[in-house]
Amino acid sequence: MSTKFLWYIPNTVEPGHRGDDTTTGWGSVEFSTGLARTAEAHGWSGALLGTGWGRPDTFTVATALAARTTTFEPLIAVRPGYWQPAHLAGAAATLDQLSRGRVLFNVVSGLDNLGAYGDTHVDPARRYARTEEFLHLLRRLWTEEGVTFSGEFYQVSGSTIAPRPYATGDRAHPTLYFGGASPAAERVSAAEADVQLFWGEPLDGVAERIDRLKTLSEQVGRRHKPLEFGLRVTTLVRDTTEEAWLAAEEKVAAMATADGAVWAGNGRTAVGQQRLFDLAARGEVLDTCLYTTPGRFGAGGAATTWLVGSPADVATALENYRKLGITHFVLSDTPYKQEIIRVGDQLLPLLRDPSS
Fold first, then answer.
1. Nearest Cα to Cα of residue 301 among 17, 14, 13
2. For the purposes of burial, counting CB atoms within 10 Å of the CB of 21, is it exposed (0-12), middle (13-18) or buried (19 or more)?
3. Residue 49: CB partners within 8 Å, gap ≥ 6?
4. Residue 291: which pLDDT band, with cuts at 50, 70 and 90?
5. pLDDT greater at residue 287 or residue 112
6. Is pLDDT of 299 > 90?
7. What residues contact residue 297 under an 8 Å CB cut-off, 6+ apart?
8. Mean pLDDT of the chain
9. How many CB atoms lie within 10 A of CB 160?
10. Which whole-number Å values give the CA distances from 53 to 13, 108, 124, 197, 252, in the listed order?
11. Pairwise CA distance, residues 294 & 307, whole Å
Protein backbone atom coordinates (compact mmCIF):
# COMPACT_ATOMS: atom_id res chain seq x y z
CA MET A 1 0.00 0.00 0.00
CA SER A 2 1.40 3.39 -1.00
CA THR A 3 2.21 6.03 1.61
CA LYS A 4 0.86 9.59 1.46
CA PHE A 5 2.78 12.53 2.90
CA LEU A 6 0.85 15.73 3.63
CA TRP A 7 1.87 19.03 5.21
CA TYR A 8 -0.31 21.47 7.19
CA ILE A 9 -1.41 24.96 6.16
CA PRO A 10 -2.47 27.22 9.06
CA ASN A 11 -5.85 28.49 7.90
CA THR A 12 -6.00 31.65 10.01
CA VAL A 13 -5.75 35.41 9.69
CA GLU A 14 -3.77 35.77 12.93
CA PRO A 15 0.05 35.83 12.67
CA GLY A 16 2.26 33.86 15.05
CA HIS A 17 0.54 30.49 14.68
CA ARG A 18 2.59 27.91 16.62
CA GLY A 19 5.59 30.19 16.72
CA ASP A 20 5.73 31.07 13.01
CA ASP A 21 7.44 34.47 12.94
CA THR A 22 6.05 35.53 9.55
CA THR A 23 4.36 38.88 10.22
CA THR A 24 2.38 39.64 7.07
CA GLY A 25 0.07 37.95 4.60
CA TRP A 26 -1.83 35.63 6.93
CA GLY A 27 -5.28 34.84 5.55
CA SER A 28 -4.47 36.13 2.05
CA VAL A 29 -4.74 34.00 -1.07
CA GLU A 30 -1.10 34.83 -1.86
CA PHE A 31 0.09 33.51 1.53
CA SER A 32 -1.81 30.22 1.35
CA THR A 33 -1.03 29.72 -2.34
CA GLY A 34 2.66 30.24 -1.63
CA LEU A 35 2.58 27.49 0.99
CA ALA A 36 0.62 25.14 -1.28
CA ARG A 37 2.93 25.66 -4.25
CA THR A 38 5.99 25.23 -2.06
CA ALA A 39 4.57 21.95 -0.74
CA GLU A 40 3.90 20.83 -4.30
CA ALA A 41 7.48 21.64 -5.31
CA HIS A 42 9.11 19.85 -2.39
CA GLY A 43 7.58 16.40 -2.44
CA TRP A 44 4.32 16.76 -0.51
CA SER A 45 1.08 15.29 -1.83
CA GLY A 46 -0.91 18.15 -0.31
CA ALA A 47 -1.76 19.67 3.05
CA LEU A 48 -4.35 19.67 5.80
CA LEU A 49 -6.37 22.90 6.03
CA GLY A 50 -7.74 23.53 9.51
CA THR A 51 -11.28 24.65 10.31
CA GLY A 52 -12.90 26.73 13.02
CA TRP A 53 -15.43 29.52 13.34
CA GLY A 54 -13.80 32.93 13.03
CA ARG A 55 -11.18 31.66 10.59
CA PRO A 56 -11.26 31.73 6.77
CA ASP A 57 -13.80 29.28 5.36
CA THR A 58 -11.83 26.11 4.74
CA PHE A 59 -13.72 24.91 1.69
CA THR A 60 -13.37 28.27 -0.03
CA VAL A 61 -9.63 28.38 0.66
CA ALA A 62 -9.25 24.80 -0.62
CA THR A 63 -11.05 25.70 -3.84
CA ALA A 64 -8.72 28.65 -4.41
CA LEU A 65 -5.65 26.50 -3.78
CA ALA A 66 -6.83 23.69 -6.04
CA ALA A 67 -7.29 26.23 -8.85
CA ARG A 68 -3.76 27.60 -8.36
CA THR A 69 -1.89 24.30 -8.17
CA THR A 70 -1.45 21.20 -10.32
CA THR A 71 -1.00 18.17 -8.06
CA PHE A 72 -1.67 19.66 -4.60
CA GLU A 73 -4.35 17.74 -2.64
CA PRO A 74 -6.23 19.85 -0.07
CA LEU A 75 -7.24 17.84 2.99
CA ILE A 76 -10.28 19.93 3.89
CA ALA A 77 -11.42 19.92 7.51
CA VAL A 78 -15.23 20.06 7.81
CA ARG A 79 -17.74 19.84 10.67
CA PRO A 80 -21.09 18.03 10.45
CA GLY A 81 -22.71 20.80 12.54
CA TYR A 82 -21.65 23.37 9.95
CA TRP A 83 -22.51 21.41 6.79
CA GLN A 84 -25.55 19.41 5.79
CA PRO A 85 -24.37 16.15 4.18
CA ALA A 86 -26.19 16.77 0.88
CA HIS A 87 -24.71 20.28 0.62
CA LEU A 88 -21.19 18.97 1.23
CA ALA A 89 -21.71 16.01 -1.11
CA GLY A 90 -22.63 18.32 -3.98
CA ALA A 91 -19.95 20.94 -3.32
CA ALA A 92 -17.27 18.29 -2.80
CA ALA A 93 -18.14 16.35 -5.93
CA THR A 94 -17.99 19.55 -7.97
CA LEU A 95 -14.58 20.53 -6.60
CA ASP A 96 -13.37 16.94 -7.00
CA GLN A 97 -14.31 17.01 -10.69
CA LEU A 98 -12.78 20.44 -11.27
CA SER A 99 -9.52 19.38 -9.59
CA ARG A 100 -9.46 15.94 -11.24
CA GLY A 101 -9.74 13.94 -8.04
CA ARG A 102 -7.49 15.92 -5.72
CA VAL A 103 -9.95 16.46 -2.85
CA LEU A 104 -9.62 14.87 0.61
CA PHE A 105 -11.76 15.48 3.71
CA ASN A 106 -10.99 15.46 7.43
CA VAL A 107 -14.31 15.24 9.28
CA VAL A 108 -14.13 16.92 12.70
CA SER A 109 -16.53 16.27 15.59
CA GLY A 110 -14.79 18.32 18.28
CA LEU A 111 -16.45 21.36 19.82
CA ASP A 112 -16.21 24.75 18.14
CA ASN A 113 -18.03 28.07 18.63
CA LEU A 114 -21.29 26.21 18.07
CA GLY A 115 -23.70 29.03 18.85
CA ALA A 116 -22.11 31.26 16.23
CA TYR A 117 -23.42 29.08 13.42
CA GLY A 118 -26.43 27.50 15.12
CA ASP A 119 -25.18 24.05 16.07
CA THR A 120 -27.11 22.87 19.13
CA HIS A 121 -25.57 19.41 19.60
CA VAL A 122 -23.11 19.64 22.49
CA ASP A 123 -23.32 16.16 24.02
CA PRO A 124 -20.29 14.14 22.78
CA ALA A 125 -22.21 10.87 22.32
CA ARG A 126 -24.82 12.54 20.13
CA ARG A 127 -22.18 14.42 18.19
CA TYR A 128 -20.40 11.19 17.28
CA ALA A 129 -23.67 9.49 16.43
CA ARG A 130 -24.43 12.41 14.13
CA THR A 131 -20.98 12.15 12.53
CA GLU A 132 -21.46 8.46 11.80
CA GLU A 133 -24.80 9.24 10.14
CA PHE A 134 -23.20 12.13 8.26
CA LEU A 135 -20.44 9.93 6.82
CA HIS A 136 -22.86 7.14 5.94
CA LEU A 137 -25.13 9.52 4.03
CA LEU A 138 -22.22 11.31 2.38
CA ARG A 139 -20.95 8.03 0.90
CA ARG A 140 -24.42 7.13 -0.38
CA LEU A 141 -24.92 10.53 -1.99
CA TRP A 142 -21.56 10.21 -3.76
CA THR A 143 -22.23 6.71 -5.11
CA GLU A 144 -26.01 6.27 -5.51
CA GLU A 145 -28.89 7.96 -7.31
CA GLY A 146 -32.27 8.86 -5.84
CA VAL A 147 -31.05 8.52 -2.26
CA THR A 148 -33.79 8.48 0.36
CA PHE A 149 -32.69 8.44 3.97
CA SER A 150 -34.43 9.13 7.27
CA GLY A 151 -32.16 9.07 10.29
CA GLU A 152 -32.02 10.64 13.73
CA PHE A 153 -30.18 13.72 12.45
CA TYR A 154 -30.59 13.89 8.67
CA GLN A 155 -33.28 13.27 6.10
CA VAL A 156 -33.17 13.41 2.31
CA SER A 157 -35.68 12.22 -0.27
CA GLY A 158 -34.88 11.19 -3.84
CA SER A 159 -31.51 12.99 -3.73
CA THR A 160 -29.11 12.75 -6.67
CA ILE A 161 -26.01 14.93 -6.97
CA ALA A 162 -24.37 15.98 -10.21
CA PRO A 163 -21.61 15.77 -11.09
CA ARG A 164 -20.37 12.66 -9.35
CA PRO A 165 -16.93 12.72 -7.68
CA TYR A 166 -13.98 12.13 -9.96
CA ALA A 167 -13.57 8.34 -10.07
CA THR A 168 -10.31 6.60 -11.00
CA GLY A 169 -9.39 2.96 -10.44
CA ASP A 170 -10.71 1.91 -7.05
CA ARG A 171 -11.35 5.53 -5.98
CA ALA A 172 -15.09 6.19 -6.03
CA HIS A 173 -15.04 9.40 -3.98
CA PRO A 174 -12.75 11.61 -1.86
CA THR A 175 -10.97 9.91 1.03
CA LEU A 176 -12.62 10.51 4.41
CA TYR A 177 -10.23 11.06 7.31
CA PHE A 178 -11.43 11.08 10.91
CA GLY A 179 -9.82 11.39 14.35
CA GLY A 180 -10.84 10.78 17.93
CA ALA A 181 -9.80 8.46 20.76
CA SER A 182 -12.99 7.92 22.75
CA PRO A 183 -14.97 4.68 22.32
CA ALA A 184 -17.71 6.62 20.50
CA ALA A 185 -15.17 8.19 18.13
CA GLU A 186 -13.49 4.88 17.39
CA ARG A 187 -16.86 3.37 16.49
CA VAL A 188 -17.33 6.10 13.89
CA SER A 189 -13.95 5.33 12.33
CA ALA A 190 -14.50 1.59 12.40
CA ALA A 191 -17.87 1.90 10.69
CA GLU A 192 -17.57 4.77 8.23
CA ALA A 193 -14.14 6.47 7.91
CA ASP A 194 -11.49 5.64 5.33
CA VAL A 195 -8.53 6.78 7.45
CA GLN A 196 -8.24 7.01 11.24
CA LEU A 197 -5.83 9.80 12.19
CA PHE A 198 -3.75 9.48 15.37
CA TRP A 199 -1.82 12.23 17.08
CA GLY A 200 1.81 11.73 18.15
CA GLU A 201 1.49 8.91 20.66
CA PRO A 202 4.22 6.35 21.42
CA LEU A 203 4.36 3.25 19.29
CA ASP A 204 2.78 0.98 21.89
CA GLY A 205 -0.28 3.23 22.18
CA VAL A 206 -0.72 3.45 18.43
CA ALA A 207 -0.32 -0.32 18.04
CA GLU A 208 -2.94 -0.93 20.70
CA ARG A 209 -5.40 1.41 19.01
CA ILE A 210 -4.83 -0.11 15.56
CA ASP A 211 -5.55 -3.58 16.93
CA ARG A 212 -8.66 -2.32 18.70
CA LEU A 213 -9.96 -0.56 15.59
CA LYS A 214 -9.43 -3.64 13.43
CA THR A 215 -11.40 -5.73 15.91
CA LEU A 216 -14.08 -3.07 16.19
CA SER A 217 -14.41 -2.93 12.39
CA GLU A 218 -15.42 -6.57 12.44
CA GLN A 219 -17.77 -6.09 15.36
CA VAL A 220 -19.68 -3.22 13.72
CA GLY A 221 -19.92 -5.05 10.39
CA ARG A 222 -17.85 -2.58 8.38
CA ARG A 223 -19.16 -2.45 4.78
CA HIS A 224 -16.22 -0.64 3.17
CA LYS A 225 -12.64 -1.52 2.26
CA PRO A 226 -10.36 -1.96 5.32
CA LEU A 227 -9.76 1.07 7.51
CA GLU A 228 -6.40 2.76 6.94
CA PHE A 229 -4.37 4.67 9.52
CA GLY A 230 -2.59 8.01 9.64
CA LEU A 231 -0.36 10.06 11.94
CA ARG A 232 -0.64 13.82 12.52
CA VAL A 233 2.48 15.02 14.30
CA THR A 234 5.02 17.84 14.52
CA THR A 235 8.46 16.96 13.09
CA LEU A 236 11.37 19.16 14.18
CA VAL A 237 14.24 18.27 11.83
CA ARG A 238 17.76 19.72 11.74
CA ASP A 239 21.01 18.61 10.06
CA THR A 240 22.23 16.84 13.21
CA THR A 241 20.62 15.31 16.27
CA GLU A 242 22.32 17.85 18.52
CA GLU A 243 21.10 20.82 16.47
CA ALA A 244 17.56 19.47 16.50
CA TRP A 245 17.38 19.05 20.26
CA LEU A 246 18.92 22.47 20.82
CA ALA A 247 16.25 23.98 18.55
CA ALA A 248 13.50 22.04 20.35
CA GLU A 249 14.66 23.25 23.75
CA GLU A 250 14.87 26.83 22.49
CA LYS A 251 11.31 26.63 21.17
CA VAL A 252 9.98 25.24 24.44
CA ALA A 253 11.81 27.96 26.38
CA ALA A 254 10.11 30.57 24.19
CA MET A 255 6.74 28.88 24.71
CA ALA A 256 7.21 29.08 28.46
CA THR A 257 7.24 32.88 28.28
CA ALA A 258 4.72 33.39 25.44
CA ASP A 259 0.95 33.34 25.04
CA GLY A 260 0.04 29.65 24.91
CA ALA A 261 -3.04 30.39 22.80
CA VAL A 262 -0.99 30.40 19.59
CA TRP A 263 0.09 26.82 20.29
CA ALA A 264 -3.13 25.39 21.70
CA GLY A 265 -5.31 23.02 19.75
CA ASN A 266 -9.08 22.62 19.89
CA GLY A 267 -10.73 20.16 22.26
CA ARG A 268 -8.21 20.41 25.07
CA THR A 269 -10.40 18.21 27.29
CA ALA A 270 -11.04 15.60 24.59
CA VAL A 271 -9.96 12.01 25.25
CA GLY A 272 -7.25 12.09 22.59
CA GLN A 273 -5.84 15.38 23.85
CA GLN A 274 -5.75 14.13 27.44
CA ARG A 275 -3.87 11.02 26.29
CA LEU A 276 -1.16 13.31 24.91
CA PHE A 277 -0.97 15.43 28.06
CA ASP A 278 -0.63 12.27 30.16
CA LEU A 279 2.45 11.16 28.21
CA ALA A 280 4.68 13.66 30.02
CA ALA A 281 4.33 11.56 33.17
CA ARG A 282 5.97 8.66 31.34
CA GLY A 283 9.05 10.68 30.41
CA GLU A 284 10.35 13.68 28.54
CA VAL A 285 11.41 11.56 25.54
CA LEU A 286 9.56 8.38 24.58
CA ASP A 287 10.45 5.73 21.99
CA THR A 288 13.44 7.03 20.05
CA CYS A 289 12.68 10.77 19.77
CA LEU A 290 9.09 11.61 20.75
CA TYR A 291 9.32 14.82 22.82
CA THR A 292 6.48 15.23 25.33
CA THR A 293 7.51 18.51 27.01
CA PRO A 294 5.71 20.94 24.62
CA GLY A 295 2.37 19.88 26.07
CA ARG A 296 3.45 21.16 29.47
CA PHE A 297 3.87 24.69 28.11
CA GLY A 298 0.62 25.34 26.30
CA ALA A 299 0.93 23.23 23.15
CA GLY A 300 -2.17 21.34 22.07
CA GLY A 301 -3.33 19.09 19.27
CA ALA A 302 -0.61 18.00 16.87
CA ALA A 303 1.85 20.36 18.58
CA THR A 304 1.58 18.57 21.95
CA THR A 305 4.32 16.06 21.09
CA TRP A 306 7.16 16.41 18.56
CA LEU A 307 9.44 14.00 16.75
CA VAL A 308 12.85 15.62 17.13
CA GLY A 309 16.15 14.79 15.44
CA SER A 310 18.24 14.60 12.32
CA PRO A 311 16.53 13.52 9.08
CA ALA A 312 17.72 9.97 9.75
CA ASP A 313 16.43 10.06 13.35
CA VAL A 314 12.96 11.22 12.38
CA ALA A 315 12.83 8.91 9.35
CA THR A 316 13.56 5.95 11.63
CA ALA A 317 10.77 7.02 13.99
CA LEU A 318 8.27 7.38 11.14
CA GLU A 319 9.34 4.04 9.66
CA ASN A 320 8.53 2.44 13.00
CA TYR A 321 5.01 3.87 12.74
CA ARG A 322 4.77 2.66 9.16
CA LYS A 323 5.66 -0.87 10.30
CA LEU A 324 2.57 -0.74 12.54
CA GLY A 325 0.38 0.03 9.54
CA ILE A 326 0.46 3.84 9.28
CA THR A 327 0.23 4.86 5.61
CA HIS A 328 -0.87 8.51 5.86
CA PHE A 329 1.43 11.10 7.44
CA VAL A 330 0.41 14.72 8.12
CA LEU A 331 3.55 16.52 9.30
CA SER A 332 4.39 20.14 10.15
CA ASP A 333 6.73 22.52 11.91
CA THR A 334 7.25 26.28 11.96
CA PRO A 335 8.09 28.59 10.29
CA TYR A 336 5.75 26.76 7.92
CA LYS A 337 7.25 27.72 4.56
CA GLN A 338 10.84 27.20 5.66
CA GLU A 339 10.05 23.80 7.13
CA ILE A 340 8.01 22.67 4.12
CA ILE A 341 11.28 22.94 2.21
CA ARG A 342 13.63 21.55 4.85
CA VAL A 343 11.49 18.55 5.83
CA GLY A 344 10.41 17.90 2.26
CA ASP A 345 13.96 17.92 0.92
CA GLN A 346 15.75 16.19 3.81
CA LEU A 347 13.21 13.81 5.32
CA LEU A 348 10.85 12.66 2.56
CA PRO A 349 13.55 11.15 0.33
CA LEU A 350 14.60 8.88 3.20
CA LEU A 351 11.04 7.65 3.60
CA ARG A 352 10.48 7.10 -0.11
CA ASP A 353 13.74 5.25 -0.78
CA PRO A 354 13.62 1.64 0.52
CA SER A 355 17.43 1.52 0.66
CA SER A 356 17.72 4.53 2.99
1. 17
2. exposed
3. 9, 11, 58, 61, 62, 65, 74, 75, 76, 77
4. very high
5. 287
6. no
7. 252, 255, 256, 260, 263
8. 92
9. 12
10. 12, 13, 19, 22, 28
11. 11
DSSP string, 63-105: HHHHHT-SS-EEEEEE-TTTS-HHHHHHHHHHHHHHTTS--EE
Look up residue 350 and give its DSSP letter: H
Residue 219, judged by CB atoms within 10 A of its CB (0-12, 13-18, 19+), counts as exposed
pTM: 0.94
Give CA–CA dist 155/227, Å, rounded: 27
Alpha carbon distance 317, 45 (integer Å): 20
Helices and strands, number each (H, E), in the chain:
11, 13
Q: Tell me if 33 sits within 8 A of 348, measured CB to CB.
A: no
**What average pLDDT score do residues 124-149 get?**
95
Strands 290-291 and 285-286: antiparallel
User: What's the full length of the chain, in residues?
Assistant: 356
Give the number of other CB atoms < 10 A from CB of residue 354: 5
Half-sphere exposure for 303 (CA within 13 Å, toward CB): 26
DSSP 8-71: EE---SSS-GGG----S-TTSHHHHHHHHHHHHHTT--EEEE---TTS--HHHHHHHHHHT-SS
Euclidean distance between CA atoms 33 and 24, whole angstroms = 14
Quickly list H helices, 264-310: 271-278
pLDDT tens-digit readout, 98-109: 999 999 999 998
Q: What is the dihedral of CA 161, 165, 168, 172, to 10 degrees?
A: -70
> CA 300 to CA 311: how far, in whole Å?
24
Average of pLDDT values for 174-180?
96
**If you ran DSSP here, which 8-state letter would residue 227 be given?**
P
In the predicted model, is pLDDT for residue 323 greater than 90? yes
Q: Which of 170, 235, 226, 236 is nearest to 199 (CA)?
A: 235
Please give the average per-residue pLDDT across 209-236, as a whole number.
97
